[in-house]
Amino acid sequence: MARNAEKAMTTLARWRAAQVQEAGGQRERRPYLASECTDLQQAEKWRLQIVREIAKKVAQIQNAGLGEFRIRDLNDEINKLMREKRHWEVQIKALGGPDHARVGPKMLDQDGKEVPGNRGYKYFGAAKDLPGVRELFEQEPPAAPRRTRADLMRDVDADYYGYRDDDDGLLLPLEQEAEKEAIAKAVEEWKRNKDENKDQEIPEEENIYPEDPDDKRIEDDENEKSTETSHVAVPSQKDVEEALLRRKKQELLEKYGCLDVKMEES
């Protein structure tokens, strides 16, 4: 690929430079600031020139084989030209021209979708597939709406608790049939056990409740048995008092009788 110096020396470039000089001097350059232009026709011309440059660079950036650095440079240049175009549109509106920002078409990609961007910076062509850019525009799936307790209780009725399961007429016949089978099976098993134990002596049932020595009910039963079999006469209160009186008299006689005997001996 030829260098810029070699391009300038070609016959076409020299012929073009001669045409410009004949037309009236050097080639006119676009003003750096849009506010410096006070002519509406000139402002429209510079805006159209910027639009052509943007279209050319957008066509170039579609080639993914340019490399990451070249694609990033092209994308930066396109965004710079987009900002400059907006400045010229503001100047055109200030000079009494049409409002291109309001009536102009939106920037669309090759799929017909609006060019994605973040805070005014947009990505074109292969720049949308650069590392870190694709993840920037991937939208997360919307979260499922959270249901409140009122929403959950709205579907709870008698059917939820099974109160009307018997109303369909399907469950009762099945339950009756299962009940008959269970009864027949139990009767058959009882008859079989009865036939097997018919010729065998029935052993005495083992006491599965051993006696507890601390059980008060056993003591009460033993006391009742002893009272039932006892024939000893129980003394009354008067008999007890007479017996105590006789015992007291006997003790006094023994005491004072011994004293009298000792005095006589002395």
From TrEMBL:
Residue ranges, compositional bias (Acidic residues): 202-213
Entry GO CC: nucleus
One GO term (biological process): generation of catalytic spliceosome for second transesterification step
A Pfam family it matches: Isy1
Keyword Signal: no
Keyword set, alphabetical order: Nucleus
Region (Disordered): 189-240
Subcellular location(s) per record: Nucleus
Superkingdom as given in the UniProt entry: Eukaryota
Ranges annotated as biased composition (Basic and acidic residues): 189-201, 214-228
Family per similarity comment: Belongs to the ISY1 family.
Protein name: Pre-mRNA-splicing factor ISY1 homolog
Source organism (scientific name): Euphydryas editha (Edith's checkerspot)
